[in-house]
Amino acid sequence: MYRFNFSNIDNTSQYEELIKEFLQPSQYGENGETVLEYDFRGDKNDLKRQIYRDLSRLTGEAPKWGILTGIRPVKLAGELLDSGEDPKKVLMEQYLTDETKADLVCDILEYQRAKAGKPDPMSLSVYIGIPFCPTRCLYCSFTSNQVDQEAMGPYLEALGKEIDFAGEAVKSEGYKLETLYFGGGTPTSLSAEQLDALLNRVKSAFALGSVREYTVEAGRPDTITYEKLQVLQDHGVDRISINPQSMKQNTLDLIGRRHTVEDVYKAFELAGKVGMEVINADLIAGLPEETAEDFAYSLEEIIRLGAENITLHTLAVKRASRLKEMDENFNYKDEELREQMLASAHERLRGCGYVPYYLYRQKHTSGNTENTGFCKGDRPGLYNIRIMEEAQSNLALGAGGISKIYFPEENRLERVANVSNYEVYIDRIDEMIDRKIKGFFGNR
Ligand code: SF4
Fold first, then answer.
1. What local confidence, expressed as pLDDT, does residue 258 receive?
2. Longest Cα pair distance anywhere in the chain, in angstroms?
3. Rounded to the nearest whole angstrom, what is the distance from the C-alpha of residue 147 to the centroid of ligand 1?
4. How far apart are CA 64 and CA 81, in angstroms?
5. 231 with 263: CB under 8 angstroms?
6. In the chain, what is the straight-line distance between the N-terminal and C-terminal CA atoms, in Å?
7. What is the pLDDT of residues 343-353, one digit of tens each?
8. Residue among 130, 135, 137 to mutate when testing ligand 1 (max atoms within 8 A of CB)
9. Topology of the domain comprising 116-397
10. Domains of the chain: which residue ranges?
11. Whose CA is nearest to atom 5 of ligand 1?
């Protein structure tokens, strides 16, 4: 017998009548809390479905992802398809997802299979982390440090050592690089000279001939200069991110980004000048004090600027963020508004030729929504697809990098983590390399 106490459902609230109709008197707890009891003998999803239906009836709410948890619904749909099932039917009937979500997942799966194919077993994605940003955003939960460029030198030295080692090991194990991704942090926090030296080091360490996509996150527009973009272009980088998050100045000020809307326009202009092939722009639905109109306005501006990739995030306030400290319950406010913002944005993007190409969910996402990447002109972010499929090894270098080694025969991953503190990473670089020798390269 499973017994659940829902002390946060207020029996005296608007649900009172429903609760009375639904529950027997014995199902109220001693302290007046709502108690649901379940006799559970079978499939755990049966129990979840029963609880979902009962709570929906109690509260009048029906979350659109049903009982589906986990970050990667598209991966699940792919596994269902490969085992001969109909993913849409299973998502709706067994996981109780809403048809709009099931359709979105199936559309993305179809696009990925058609455009990216399945990764070669010996292919590899490489991630390189630069854990520095000019300021820390209000909602940030990543590895992001605010130091001047001189202080970044020792980190780049340690990282260079890991890059040299990894390049050798990748070659001798016969891996072929498919995608290369610089993230962080904000890699363009480095100076043009530092970027040039780092990318040269990567070029000498790895064989880059097989690379299908080379991304550098230039997320913060205030870090972008013509010289830096020219360095990236000269090194064959073909995809960058310029992430406004919002095109409303008030919002940018409020979330601590320290750049202007004007900086975003300028960054797009410079990227156009150097001839960057693909620009991704991230927007966040649900930023403090934003209305549906604000979000729609930001999207229009990004479409007008011609971003090839647009990623719609929903604000997820995580434990490590300043916003969580300021407002514990921020996530649970205006949930319907966030769902609305995203639904309109999906419609608008599809209407002007963008297609959804990847999706992931996060814990604590406002309105129980998801993050979706859109692309146009058949230029999706391949790295994003690969990281969500979990069917390829990912070698992550730098502070905070978590490498994943993929075992195709067993369809499973093992993780090898670097420390996330960049100063500890510098001090313990030999140990980070040793971890890779044992856990990544010595493991297949
Ligand atoms: S740009 Fe990204 S990594 Fe840097 S502080 Fe903001 S959210 Fe964090």
1. 85
2. 73
3. 14
4. 21
5. no
6. 44
7. 999 999 999 99
8. 137
9. pyruvate-formate lyase- activating enzyme (3.80.30)
10. 1-62, 116-397
11. 136
